[in-house]
Design brief:
This protein has 748 residues and is α+β, with helices and mostly antiparallel strands.
Length: 748
């Protein structure tokens, strides 16, 4: 664009226009004022002229009229007509024109009437009137000429002033304004480094335009710095947004952002995976859509908005519903989201599916209870072992003395039957102690072929004495049942536990039916979850008329430590033990029960073909004796005395000691005086194993027998490694000890 633009610029034209308009206004006002003054001056001159006519001309006119000299009158009128502004003169007398001069006009004239009086002999005689018209046309013409002259001169001056002002404006302001306009028009984020340069001496003191340019350059610098900061902030925001998006989308918990009306705005992928919704399906809907119970939604709404204030709860659990209708338990945390002003714009809900966690927590609680119960059982096992140890000692005395009595009586003696009953009870007690010890050591007891009807009848006979008389026992036992493989003690315990459970269910009133019969079962008779094969089975059934059980109880009756009993009424382990015994013997257990209609337990054991019941061998051979020297050590003096009596009857030379430390000193002093060492295990000073270890240091060839009723350190498997020739379990009979001595001696 050329510089001619500046001459066509709106600002320049407006500047000239405004200057000219203002100048014209001033000229007009000045001219009017000047014309007014001239007009006033001319009027005053005219009035003065008219006044002079009255004083200087009228007397001569009056004299001419008095003498009636028409020529002179006419001359006088012509003389007055030659005066400036006078355009018409007329003398009248009594309404008649006497003389006139000039032309009469109807416009722009000033008229005057002068009466004409002549003084004669002291009296004024009216000769007529002089009518005078003074024209203002000349005044107006002169005023117009003056106005035109003034306007021409002043107009030229105004034009020159306006043009000069325009040039001054152009060089001082206009061109720099154009530069400013062009610069600001081209200014953008890409050329903020280019400064603004004006066509003026920058070394001079800056004027307003220079100050504007400096301010604009300063603003450009500030803008460049601010834009740099803004870009950094935008980059930081973009990076933060990317990080937020990554975190929001990668969090495995369900995230949902809602507005203050609880309408869903945004969700993360984990939310879609858990609930089955995508954002398009639920955007704008309230979170009521994911609540399993609408009452919970309303309750949480009241808790989140109280009296217009927002309250954020701590973590709480709630039930939620997925798109497919399934319900799960979620752990929820609500976080308020605020703007920079502090105004809350919504909430971020964090939902974690804790179904498995809750199950794990319940399982943990159950396992902790199980662990505590295991500790109790471990303590019970330890206590049982101690009790069994002491009971073994008592049984040893009973069995030993009973053996002495049996030996002293002739066959057929009336008391032998009583002693045989004592022997049977002692054997049963031995089995019970062995079971307690096996339980405390968690040992697996061996199964043998046995006749189940015999054990069932024996157990029922024992149970009759311990069952309340208000409970009737009905037996349906088939003695023709074939044998099964089972541990007698465990089978006995199984029947006792089933009866105990039945008695508890009846509250000691009703009847119990015990049945035993052989059945044939095919594939169609087994449930899908039962691991069994078709064939012959012996079915043991126990039915009661008790309270019965519902389906939920039936699902858990075989769980360890599960019980429906009140605290202090039992451990709830009976049916768990039954289930364990049945499974360890490859059996199947079924339960049929309904609330109020009692329960029936059916247990199936496979029939054993071609085997006979294994009974303890009744040796008809004579008990072997000897004459060897035996050192017997037992801290129980009564057992030491009993052992001495048994060994004396067998022909041995016996030295007894109740102190293991004293026994070691005796052996150390004369190690060749003894042929066999028989020692107890549990002793206060030196245990049996410690005593054996010291003795073996002196004599490695000495036959050694260890007697114990309970030990966690020694067994039949590691006895030889511990320097033991024969391990004898308490309580022992005479023939057992006799065989053990001969066996130990024969090994050396």
């Amino acid at each position: 664009m050329t510089e001619s633009y500046y001459f066509k610029s709106i600002v320049g034209r407006k500047l000239i226009l405004y200057i000219m308009l203002f100048s014209i206004l001033v000229i007009l006002l000045g001219t009017l004022f000047h014309v007014g003054l001239d007009y006033k001056k001319d009027r005053e001159h005219l009035n003065h002229m008219v006044g002079q006519i009255k004083t200087s001309q009228l007397p001569s006119v009056i004299n001419s009229l008095w003498v009636a000299d028409q020529e002179l009158i006419k001359i006088k009128l012509e003389e007055m007509l030659s005066l400036p502004y006078i355009s018409y003169l007329e003398i009248t007398h009594n309404g008649k024109t006497v003389a006139r001069a000039g032309s009469s006009f109807s416009e722009n004239v000033i008229t005057k009437n002068y009466p004409l009086f002549y003084s004669f002999r002291g009296r004024d005689i009216k000769l007529g009137e002089l009518y005078l018209e003074a024209s203002q046309a000349e005044i107006y013409r002169r005023l117009i000429r003056n106005i035109l002259s003034d306007l021409l001169i002043l107009g030229s001056f105004i034009f020159l002033v306006a043009f000069f002002s325009f040039l001054v404006f152009y060089f001082l302001i206009g061109r720099d304004l154009k530069i400013l306009a062009d610069y600001t028009g081209r200014l953008n984020l890409d050329n903020l480094d280019i400064p603004l340069e004006l066509k003026r001496d920058v070394n001079r003191r800056p004027d307003e335009i220079g100050m504007v340019a400096s301010s604009l350059n300063g603003m450009r610098e500030n803008l460049r710095d601010e834009i740099a900061k803004l870009k950094k902030a935008e980059h930081k925001i973009a990076r933060g947004q990317a990080q937020f998006e990554a975190m929001f989308n990668s969090i495995t918990d369900s995230l949902v952002f809602v507005d203050i009306k609880r309408r869903i705005v945004r969700i993360n992928p984990a939310f879609s995976a858990v609930f089955g919704y995508n954002l398009d399906e639920i955007a704008g809907k309230t979170t009521e859509i994911i609540y399993a119970d609408p009452a919970d939604y309303a309750d949480h709404g009241e808790r989140y908005a109280v009296e217009g204030d927002i309250i954020i709860d701590s973590v709480y659990e709630n039930r939620y519903r997925r798109k497919d209708g399934s319900v799960f338990t979620g752990e929820t945390l609500g976080v308020k989201v605020s703007e920079g002003t502090g105004e809350i714009i919504g909430f971020l809900g964090i939902i974690r599916d804790i179904t498995e966690k809750k199950l794990a927590r319940e399982e943990k609680i159950r396992l902790e209870a199980s662990l505590r119960q295991s500790y109790k059982m471990e303590a019970l096992g330890t206590m049982a072992g101690g009790i069994a140890h002491d009971f073994n000692n008592i049984l040893a005395i009973i069995i030993g003395n009973n053996d002495f009595a049996m030996e002293d009586l002739e066959p057929g003696h009336p008391s032998r039957h009583s002693l045989e009953q004592v022997q049977m009870a002692a054997d049963r007690a031995k089995d019970l102690v062995r079971q307690i010890l096996s339980f405390s050591r968690q040992e697996t007891q061996a199964a043998i072929p046995l006749q189940p009807h015999v054990l069932v009848k024996e157990t029922l006979k024992l149970l009759r004495s311990t069952t309340p008389t208000t409970v009737s026992i009905v037996e349906k036992i088939d003695p023709a049942c074939r044998m099964i493989m089972a541990n007698p003690t465990q089978f006995h315990q199984l029947v006792m536990n089933l009866f105990s459970n039945a008695v508890s269910a009846m509250d000691e009133k009703g009847w119990i039916e015990a049945g035993l019969r052989e059945v044939e079962l095919g594939c169609e008779d087994w449930e899908p979850d039962e691991n069994a094969r078709p064939g012959s089975y012996v079915m043991l059934s126990v039915s009661d008329t008790g309270t019965g059980m519902d389906s939920k109880t039936l699902e858990r009756i075989f769980d360890p430590f599960y019980t429906t009993k009140q605290p202090g009424k039992g451990t709830g382990m009976g049916l768990s033990v039954v289930h364990g015994i049945v499974e360890s013997n490859h059996g199947i257990i079924r339960v049929d029960s309904q609330p109020g209609r009692g329960s029936t337990f059916q247990i199936y054991f496979p029939v054993v073909e071609g085997r006979e019941s294994i009974k303890p061998a009744q040796s008809e051979e004579a008990i072997r004796t000897g004459t060897e020297r035996i050192l017997l050590v037992d801290d129980e003096k009564s057992l030491a005395v009993m052992g001495r009596r048994i060994l004396d009857r067998l022909g041995y030379q016996v030295t007894t000691e109740s102190s293991s430390f004293s026994a070691l000193k005796i052996f150390q002093s004369e190690p060749g005086d003894f042929d066999v060492l028989i020692t107890d295990q549990a002793m206060p000073e030196l245990s049996g194993l410690e005593l054996i270890a010291e003795v073996r240091k002196i004599r490695k060839d000495l036959p050694i027998i260890l007697c114990t009723g309970y030990s966690t350190k020694v067994s039949a498997e590691n006895a030889e490694e511990l320097g033991i020739d024969v391990l004898v379990m308490k309580p022992y009979e005479t023939k057992i000890m006799a065989e053990a001595i001969r066996k130990a001696i024969e090994r050396h």
